[in-house]
Structures are given as structure tokens and as C-alpha cells.
Amino acid sequence: xxxxMITRSRRVGVVACTSKIDLLFVVDASGSIQFERMKSVREFxxxxxxxxxxxxxxxxxxxxxxxxxxxxxxxxxxxxxxQDVQEAIRYIPYLGGRTNIAAGLRIARTHLxxxxxTTLRSTFVTPIRITRTRVQAWAGDDKD
Length: 144
What we know:
By secondary structure, the chain is α+β, with helices and mostly antiparallel strands. The protein has one domain: von Willebrand factor, type A domain (Rossmann fold, 3-Layer(aba) Sandwich), CATH 3.40.50.410. The chain contains 3 helices and 7 strands. The protein has helices spanning 35-49, 82-90, 101-113; strands at 3-7, 10-15, 22-28, 60-66, 70-74, 128-130, 135-137. The strands form 3 sheets. Strands 3-4-5 form a 3-stranded mixed beta sheet. The protein has a two-stranded antiparallel ribbon with strand order 1-2.
């Protein structure tokens, strides 16, 4: 299990151990992030991945991004190295537009989690939503 503690959008500590995890980023690329801050969002995610052992038999990372609509950036089994994941994160685009987190969570569930359901590392999945000021465990349906 990897524990990432975040306060005011800054990573303040990482405690890592050797568990295999599937980490899925749901990235807000809407107008609420603002174009000027999108690079900071990407670099923040890159810094989280920097502390992970990424590979097909260790931690797998996937990402989706959303504004009005949602899109898959990369799947859990698409990249097998930390460097490849970090590079893919840097190419997540800023879209502008409305903030439709429900669409982001929906595509994460239907296209990434269900597509790899038979190979998920755990049957217990807790999405973590990183906002501009806090981190929240998301427990509910996607009818926001």
C-alpha cells in the first residue's frame, strides 16, 4: 500500500511499501483548473509517480481526463515503466469548458476498471479525488 498525504495541493509525505496496486488518476482538465495551472497539475501527478515502482508485476497506473466530456489518457496496462507513465501524464491536454466529474468517473469505471476487472490487483477500489485544496475518498455513484 502507498499512502500519499496531501495538504493544499502539495504532497507532504509518501510512505511506501511493496504492495502491488492499480492507481487510476481522474484528472480535471476543465476551465475550473485554468490553462495556466494545468502544467502544475501534470507535474504534481508526475511527482506522485516518481515514488512508485511501476511495472506489469508491481504498480500499474492509468489516467482519464475530463471537462464537458471524458477521455482515456492511458490504460492500466499500457505503460510498463515509471518514465513512460510520467511522459504520458505530461501529454494530458487542457480542455477548458465545464467541469463534469461524473463523466470522468464514469469513463474510469466503464473503460478502465471494468475492462481490467479480471486482472485488478484488489477487489476493493477507493477512488481518491484530488482537488485544489483537499483530498477526498469518493464513495458514491457518479450522479453529480
